[in-house]
Amino acid sequence: MQRPWSGPEYRRLPLLLDPAAIGLPVAAWVRIRPAPGQLPKVAALAESIRDVSAIGSPARLSCSVICAAVDAIEDVLDRF
């Protein structure tokens, strides 16, 4: 089944969001695809970052997903 949001035009969706205007904390899930054999290092780095609130690794995929506060997402991603 082809998902309508899986094409190359949906890989980067810009979003301008003001968490203060919403009045609730806003977080983003980000997929990180490390080089082969680097997944444990990515997990260790993610665990050391204060702004990362959750870390996961989807079954049978060689990637990690992290959840971080939107207002800190650029700082978090710069560390990877």
Mean pLDDT: 77
Give the overall silhouette: elongated
Order of helices and strands: HEHEEH
Q: Report the sheet-strand fraction.
A: 15-25%
> What structural class should be given to the helix and strand makeup?
alpha+beta
Give the radius of gyration: 14 Å
Alpha carbon gap, first and last residue: 32 Å
Number of helices: 3
| Helix content estimate | 25-40%
pLDDT < 50 runs, ≥5 residues: none
What is the number of E strands? 3
Describe this structure in words.
This protein is an alpha+beta fold and 80 residues long. It has a domain at 26-78. Helix content is 25%, strand content 21%. It has a 3-stranded antiparallel beta sheet with strand order 1-3-2, covered by helices on one side. The longest helix is centred in the middle third of the chain and has 10 residues, at 39-48. The model has no long low-confidence stretch (mean pLDDT 77).
